[in-house]
Amino acid sequence: MAEHASSIEIPASPEVVFEYLVTAEGLTLWMGEHAVLDARAGGVFEVDIAGSPIRGTFLEVDRPHRVVVSWGVAGSEDLPPGASQVSFTLIPTDSGTRVDLLHSGLPDLRVAGHIEGWAHFLPRLSIVCRGDVAPLDTWIPLPLRSQ
User: Fold this and answer.
1) CA pair distance 38, 15, nearest whole angstrom
2) What is the rounded distance in angstroms from the CA atom of residue 4 to the CA atom of residue 117?
3) Which residues make Cβ contacts (< 8 Å) with residue 136, sequence separation at least 6?
4) Distance (Å, whole) CA 78 – CA 110
5) CATH 3.30.530.20 holds for 2-129
6) Could you tell me the residue ranges of all domains in the chain?
7) Which of 117, 76, 61, 83 has the alpha carbon at shortest distance from 2?
8) Burial class (CB in 10 A: 0-12, 13-18, 19+), 105
9) How far is CA 19 from CA 26, 37, 111, 119, 132, in A?
10) pTM of the shown model
11) Is there a contact between 39 and 23 (Cβ–Cβ < 8 Å)?
12) Is 132 exposed, middle or buried (0-12, 13-18, 19+ CB in 10 A)?
């Protein structure tokens, strides 16, 4: 299993960024078309992204510092619901917040698609956190492929 790490600087406080990670209204402004979230340890984490039903649970919710969810795709054999883990760590900076993302437990064939996906979605998170409207999302996931 592989992992992907990335970071982004966002010109908003950790308190603001946090809300876009734990509320359905906030999450769907930057990622996904529909979400059902119960932001507490053991709570439901469901978001439909570009036709993919992502399913998991909240594993850790430490307001406004850290959110960890299990992550998988309903109906997938290689990445079933809850098979991988995504952590968002929010670190205050002089200009706002650095978000450190770590997506671990990814099957090798899924790494490239998730790298591309996070590179697409994290800048959209920054857009909405600064109070702007993200453009219509037309992202299409990469087909499965080896690295």
Assistant:
1) 18
2) 11
3) none
4) 9
5) yes
6) 2-129
7) 83
8) middle
9) 6, 12, 27, 20, 15
10) 0.94
11) yes
12) exposed
Contacts of 129 (CB under 8 A, 6+ apart): 10, 11, 12, 16, 17, 20, 96, 97
147 residues of the chain, pLDDT tens digit each = 899 999 999 999 999 999 999 999 999 999 999 999 999 999 999 999 998 999 999 999 999 999 999 999 999 999 999 999 999 999 999 999 999 999 999 999 999 999 999 999 999 999 999 999 999 998 888 775 444
Chain centroid to Cα 42, Å, comes to: 17
Collapsing DSSP to helix, strand or coil, 60 comes out as strand
Place of tokens 């968002």: 88
Phi, psi of 72 (to 5 degrees): -165, 180
User: What's the distance, Cα to Cα, between the start and end of the chain in Å?
Assistant: 13
